[in-house]
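Hey, sorry for the delay on this. The queue was backed up all week. Below are the sequences that define the complex (chains, strands and the ligand SMILES where applicable).
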Amino acid sequence: MVMTKPSIDQVWEWLDAVPDPEIPVISLVDLGIIRGVTWLNDVLEVIVTPTYSGCPATRIINLDIETALNDHGIKKVTLKRQLSPAWTTDWLSDKGKAKLENYGIAPPQTAGGPTQCPRCKSAQVEKISQFGSTPCKAQWRCTDCLEPFDYFKCI
Amino acid sequence: MGDNSLVLGHRVSEWCGVAPVLEEDIALANTALDLIGQTQLWLGLAAECEDKGRDADALAFHRDVWDFRNLLLVEQPNRDFGHTMMRQFLFDAWHSLVLAALKSSENSDIAAIAEKSLKEVTYHLERSSDTVIALGDGTEESHKRMQAGLDRLWPYVGEMFLTDEHDLIDVTALRPAFDELTNDVLDTATLSIPTDNFTHKGGKTGARHTEHLGHMIATMQFLPRAYPDAKW
Ligand SMILES: [Zn+2]
């Protein structure tokens, strides 16, 4: 049986439906870690860049990409790791940033800290720690509603 | 580079679950995670260049003390939290300068790993500088401990700036920038830099590690050596 190759746009759409394993409200495409999708004859090559070099989610992410594409009928997938240019939070999509905020994680800001509490929207916030529950996050606290919250670090 | 990040990454991970407060526990574990991630990249590249069928894990778990090329500073035991953070600060200051220099390496693999690592290490340095200042210029007790940490670790600083024929960059040339950075932070932390410039050496060349490394490696390598077929 000859399978017609799905278009690259179609593949991006499918990948945009694969959730980040640690922050499932955003997709791998929202996260900005999928750097390219190309057909090499009948093999689909997906170029992926890691968020943090030691991020334990990397292995799961690769597995999720392969599983999703296999489920859509693409049997031959190769994943290529690309380190440079290094991942930056500038690659997070606007859609992804809005979803993070809704989920209770303050999105990255170039100023270096969150502009407001994701819960009550107060601008009275302070840093608790440079590091949070995952390598990509820091811990902050709202001094109005007193809730601690995660801030997606800007790198 | 891979041995430095491996040994320090393992040392820092020893704090996991026993750090003084939860936030510090998480911060230390995340720092260790970054360092181990960087190790996978460096040792992965080393294994590839060597082309003897070994991978990053084989290099990490199946070499003995004398094959390690890490700086003596990173194999020093954790002792108290202040000592751990002083070791981290001295290493981060050096690490950030070396990575910035390696970022312009002609070897694109090395440049890419340096570029990636530097982003993480910039955070490490920010945190360790803040902590050294907070504890140095803190209570009488915290100041005393930070000064003790600095006094004990300072003799390991010199080795970081010895350039040998295997170095791709002139690390000795980075010393003035290191001095400027550390003077600034240690001065704000109200700590005094020891005046004696004696330096221990032998870690980077592998000629003479301190006794601590063997004990650390025995713990680190036990599982993959005792159970070679174990899968994560
Ligand atoms: Zn609030």
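The radius of gyration of chain B is 17 Å.

I'll add it to the shared folder too.

S.
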